[in-house]
Amino acid sequence: MLLYYLNIGSNIGHKLLNILRAMSELSLLGYIRSMSDPIESEPWGFSSSNSFINIGFALSSEIEPHDMLDEIHRIERQLGSADHRDAAGNYVDRLVDIDIMAIDDNDGNPITIHTPTLQVPHPHLHERTFFIEPYKQLRSDIYEAPAQS
User: Does the predicted TM-score (pTM) go above 0.85?
Assistant: First the structure.
């Protein structure tokens, strides 16, 4: 059993409903163990008047990482999310964007994957607020809140 730390973002349409639909589809692939609070952020890597809502969640699943990535892409297409880039290669608005932030093995140890199609942990995990803030909530065991004085 693997524990996937996933992030779902949406910046067009009914954003929270888009995210909930994606979570519903992903829940068919395993068991949702926890979920972060929603976070609102400006688009990263492109300009748009549409801000993103992102939610992170932890999903236990027996599906292998590359197969999970295939399932994620299938769900994005099924929900009507077009490609993440336009013909020129620039990022664009999207209904749903699902990313694998990190994966733990059965013993809770982080998994590292570096292939042309999948990099785990996500190469920008610690650079993007919309990734790291939900991830910190999900991984409170390693990201402790500062002590109150």
Answer: yes
Average pLDDT, integer, range 30-49 = 87
Helices (H) and strands (E) in the chain, counts: 3, 7
Measured at the CA of 24, the angle between CA 51 and CA 132, to 5 degrees, comes to 45
Number of folded domains in the chain?
A: 1
Do the beta carbons of residue 12 and residue 93 sit within 8 Å? yes
CATH number at 127 reads 3.30.70.560
Would 147 be classed as within a structural domain? no
pLDDT at 56: 96
Cβ atoms within 10 Å of 43's Cβ, excluding its own: 18
Q: How far, in Å, CA of 96 to CA of 93, rounded?
A: 9
